[in-house]
Amino acid sequence: MTVEKTDPVEVFGAGLKGRGLRGTKDLSAGEVVFAEASFAAVVFDSLSLQVCHSCFRRQVNPHRCAQCKFAHYCDRTCQRAAWDEHKKECSAIRNIGKAPNENVRLVARILWRIQKHTGLVSDSQLTTLDMLEDHLSRMTPEDLKELKADVKTFYTYWPKKSKAVGEDYVSHLFGVISCNGFTLSDQRGLQLVGIGLFPNLCLVNHDCWPNCTVILNHGDQSALDASFHSSRRIELRALEPISAGQELTVSYVDFLSVSTDRQRLLKQQYYFDCKCEHCVNGTKDELMTAVKPTEDGKQPSADVVKQLTDFSLQALVKIEAARAQGNFHEVIRICRECLEKQDPVFADTNVHVLRVLSTASEVLSFLQQFQDAARYAQRMVDGYMKLYHPNNAQLGMAIMRAGVTHWHAGLIEGAHGLICRAYGILMITHGPHHPISRDLEAMRRQTETELRMFKQNEHVYHSMREAVLTSKPMSVAGEQVQIKA
Questions:
Q1: CA distance 428 to 396
Q2: Which residues are 233's β-sheet partners?
Q3: Residue 229 has what DSSP assignment?
Q4: 175's torsion region: left (phi>0), alpha (psi -120 to 50) or beta?
Q5: How many CB atoms lie within 10 A of CB 241?
């Protein structure tokens, strides 16, 4: 059974992993394997006032539903487009006086759609939700307690006029979204704003070093299939050449942790023991825990490494606390203190160093201390490139941010090189039509122009840049030159 004639995938028995998807033809890097609109999706509770509940775009002053006073939209066009999905939700919210949490809202939307379409919304859907794993039998007592509380809230929320649903099936759906829900980003792909369920995507198994990636693409209005007009549409894209018959995989967790930590997280969140090649062999673990030799050429003692590891973990907690309070100068102080202690012992591929470098470069950029931010960002990227898959989306995004930081710092040669490198990665992971790719292409052209100017005359370039930044007229050879930002 295939998704569509144009989608080269099929379901197969993947041994201990259960069902999986594999390609039915050779695939090239960057190729869209399949696209899928969400079965149902909701905005996060914390962003319900800032994000459109139809297209999931962030808005400064969204239009509020006058009836439930909970749902918000870009405008009346988005509100009308969402009404078929929102009308039962709207009535349910009004009946109980407030909106329940995102998981309850998502399960309700799923059930309303199942009852309308009997579980299959299109011929391209490979599986019903009944057949998806819920892992209820593997959940911890704490997780089950939380799930049962959500089930209780659901029945308070579920309208009496709607068709009755058994508790076992409701619990099944809560289990399904717990381990199969896919987080949705805003229109620029930079912030997570909601959660949705994509049945076909649920069939793609995990690998810590996957051959595919998933991105959210906010709809293709030119597609003949109207389901692809959805603003909540994912694309499964090949990261590398894939042979026909090879299993398609994605990573459920960030690779930037040692194999035992990834395995523990996967067991905790997805209830399986990862047996991928990188976990079994501990691939890249040595780099992620790398230390520098001492002055006499010996390795630092295990006690020294443990003490510094504990210090680094405690520092990260303090960094996050200061960041949450908006105390960014304290964040930088702790980062610098931590790096000063780490640098004599830990190598730059050590994950503890990389986490501090990432935070330091981001916060320094926010504080507009771009020279220091660029220095930390370059170290971070150098470490990432030794660890991540060469076409990893997170690597591409990190290189893009580093390029922008260098650009702001006036380091145009480094900026252009990083932006070009990021562009090469994101063309594979996101494709040419994604908003991030279009932004990056504009930056690539601009930095290319500036680099050409820089190579012709460094003094003129820096003078022009300073004039743009300060909005002051620039003087060249004694004459004022008008600068356009």
A1: 10
A2: 37, 217
A3: G
A4: alpha
A5: 12
Contacts of 140 (CB under 8 A, 6+ apart): none
Find the radius of gyration of the CA atoms of the chain. 25
Instruction: Look at residue 477 and tell me whether its pLDDT is greater than 70.
Output: no
**Which residues, 6+ apart, have CB-to-CB distance to 300 below 8 Å?**
291, 292, 293, 294, 345
Q: DSSP secondary structure string, 453-478?
A: HHHH-HHHHHHHHHHHHHT--EEETT
d(C-alpha 83, C-alpha 152), whole Å:
26
Give CB contacts under 8 A, 24+ apart, made by 94-98: 94/67, 94/68, 95/159, 96/156, 96/157, 98/70
> How far are the Cα atoms of 126, 373, 421 from residue 407, in angstroms, in the given order?
46, 11, 14
432 by Cβ neighbours in 10 Å (0-12 / 13-18 / 19+) ranks as: exposed
Q: Give the pLDDT score at 231.
A: 59
Residue type, 164: A
Q: Which residues contact 96 (CB under 8 A, 6 or more apart)?
A: 156, 157
- pLDDT tens by residue, 118-175: 655 566 778 888 889 999 999 999 999 999 999 999 999 999 888 899 999 999 999 9
CA gap 357, 336 in Å, rounded: 9
Question: How many residues belong to the chain?
Answer: 485
- End-to-end alpha carbon distance in the chain: 55
Angle between helices 351-366 and 370-387 (to 10 degrees): 150
Taking CB atoms within 8 Å and a gap of at least 24, the contacts of 268-276 are 269/179, 270/135, 270/179, 270/206, 271/135, 271/138, 271/139, 271/179, 272/17, 272/206, 274/206, 274/208, 275/16, 276/206, 276/207, 276/208, 276/209
String of b and e for 107-140 (b: at least 16 CB within 10 Å)?
Answer: bbbbbbbbeeeebebeebbbbebeebbbbbeebe
pTM (2 d.p.): 0.87
